[in-house]
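so my prof wants the structure for this chain in the tokens format not the other one, which i didnt know existed until like an hour ago. anyway here's the sequence
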Amino acid sequence: MGRGGLPARSFFELLLDQERDALLGAGRPRKWESGEVVVRAGDPADSATVLLSGSIKIHKTAAEGAEVVLALLGAGDLLGEMSALHEGVRSADATALEQVEGVVVPVSALRAFLGSHPRASLALLEMALARLHVSDLRRIEFATAGSLALVATRLVELAERFGVQR
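here's what i got, hopefully its the right format
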């Protein structure tokens, strides 16, 4: 586990080469430009996307109109798998922060992939549980930490995950 309970590696990095090839082969390549909406809250969740490059913010608009950033995803992450696997609708918007390349995998192909690759299913379960753990930790932090501590913690997490060493 990395800082804040997040996995040290992405979903894609947890897969074996043959699992990666099978997952990528199950979808179609797609590109998004900076600022482009990748998925919109309320839309049918009929696919998941493997992010190959770039970064995406997952966000919702609160009742009073403020944007709340729920997560940042980068290369190797899987976008939209939870909504797709429980045949729901998108729960939040996802917007490209820079040019993004990914592979869009239809939910039927994702289910078939997970059914034939149990190791990948376990990796997906581990990622979902890690996200749940982080969500719990953030609720505790929000209830107990001051604003400065919250901002500092997020900045460190972002630097560790997306920063570039020079």
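also thought this was worth mentioning. Residues 118-144 form the longest helix (27 residues).
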